[in-house]
Amino acid sequence: MNVNNDRLHKERMMQDTLAIVLAGGMGSRLSPLTDNRAKPAVLFGGKYRIIDFTLTNCLHSGLRKILVLTQYKSHSLQKHLRDGWSVFNPELGEYVTAVPPQMRTGDQWYSGTADAIYQNLWLLSRSTAKYVVVLSGDHIYRMDYAPMLELHKSKGADLTISCMEVPVEEASSFGIMNIDNEKRIINFVEKPEKPATIPNDPSKSLASMGIYIFTTDFLIKILKEDAQDPNSSNDFGHDIIPRAIKDNNVYAHPFADRVGRVSQDSYWRDVGTIDSLYQANMDLLQPVPPIDLYQSSWAIRTYEQQLPPARTVSSAVGNEGVFINSIISNGVIISGGSVHNSILSPNVRIDDRVTVSGSILFNHVEVGKGCQLKNCIIDKHVKIPAETKIGIDPVQDAKRFTISEQGIVVVPEGYLFT
Questions:
Q1: Tell me, what DSSP letter sits at residue 163?
Q2: Within 13 Å of residue 37, how many CA atoms lie on the same side as its CB?
Q3: Residue 98 near residue 84 (C-beta atoms within 8 A)
Q4: Residue 278 vs residues 12, 109, 360, 361, 409: alpha-carbon distances, Å
């Protein structure tokens, strides 16, 4: 009986909760991969989109009311939501709904993370939700939000923020907080030049993960206050959180302490640059990947086109198609070429005498005979002519492609070789 009561309690709590996914960012540091798509719609791990991880967390956590706030080049993202995430029953009050800017509060687009929600207060007022979970659509991680929501409710919190420990040398890229013994946040600074460290451990800081739970009435109140401040940048990290901790109950939920139904890999990555996106993909190729994509009870959902299985083929001259320590998606054909430590998305074609190493190939890439690809990302619908070399000669690559700080060569979508 106690187990059933606990389950019913969690179900009611989730029914009282609205999730808002912020997915309108420009993602300029991921250019050219974001030249024609929003950052959350960028492909990841062969068959996923970045936003799939946040939406999967909502799905498995029991959140069934989800608004996705879109803006920048959102067609690809909205198509993906339609094709892959039309999974809920609207007759039961369940939905995943894309919400583009509607200019309900003025004549401007979303001007910040807080402003994006402020412009949609009309939707909050129509909702019966007691709690609002605010999430980012461009992080790679797995998390059960139910224990965090339980903490928020038990503390009588106005705002709860999920946090994690980061090396102090990386801390200036995050919102950094200090907490007391009760996990109440007593100080918060967004991207400080000199980050505060954890007591008794000067090598680490406590960083916000951009995961917030608000009591709905408090969220509406503080967003209205922020909108009236002419000096505000309308951003959660810079404005809302520092304003909230002054006179309100704001608590931290340490990521490493979390409990729930998801296995405890504690992996979280902001894939906001070419190098961070590349490294997060390469993490999947480790002997024991730091993020568990194979937990059957926490499967990462996505849209998956109906395609034949991947296969290797001997070429006309007898070369065997092979792949080693790689992720190979449906519809891939490796015909006499070799693929090492790489990730191939659906419908990739690898021809004879090709070598692909340390690379990520998006959908419908065709690699001609004798090509050499190394440490590169090839966007969708690119046909690479025979004998082409990419990632071999940095001087030649720089004349036509983007090269990241760590030397990853990026070929844009639909690039035409001359």
A1: E
A2: 21
A3: no
A4: 40, 31, 8, 11, 10
To which H or E segment does residue 81 belong?
helix 75-84
Name the segment(s) of the chain with CATH classification 3.90.550.10.
2-298
Q: What is the pLDDT of residues 298-355, one digit of tens each?
A: 999 999 999 999 999 998 888 999 999 999 999 999 999 999 999 999 999 999 999 9
Answer whether 55's CB lies under 8 Å from 21's CB.
yes
Alpha-carbon distances of 267 from 53, 140, 250, 262, rounded to whole Å? 12, 8, 24, 12
Phi and psi at residue 102, to the nearest 5°:
-120, 0
Fold that domain 2-298 belongs to in CATH: Spore Coat Polysaccharide Biosynthesis Protein SpsA; Chain A (3.90.550)
DSSP3 helix / strand / coil % (the chain, rounded to 5): 30, 25, 45
CATH architecture of the region 311-411? 3 Solenoid (2.160)
The residue among 3, 51, 10, 42 whose CA lies nearest residue 274 is: 42
Which tens digit of pLDDT belongs to each residue from 353-406?
A: 999 999 999 999 999 999 999 999 999 999 999 999 999 999 999 999 999 999
Contact between 403 and 26 (Cβ < 8 Å): no
Q: Are 48 and 97 in contact (CB under 8 A)?
A: no
How distant, in Å, are the alpha carbons of 85, 117, 268, 392 from that of 31? 26, 26, 22, 21
Total residue length of the chain: 418
Residue matched to tokens 């687009």: 109
Which ranges in 248-287 belong to alpha helices (H)?
274-283
- Spatial separation of the C-alpha atoms in residues 208 and 177, rounded to whole Å: 7
pLDDT, tens only, 169-210: 999 999 999 999 999 999 999 999 999 999 889 999 999 999
Smallest Cα–Cα separation from 343: which of 331, 360, 366, 362? 360
Residues of the chain with CATH 2.160.10.10: 311-411
Q: How far apart are CA 350 and CA 331, in angstroms?
A: 11
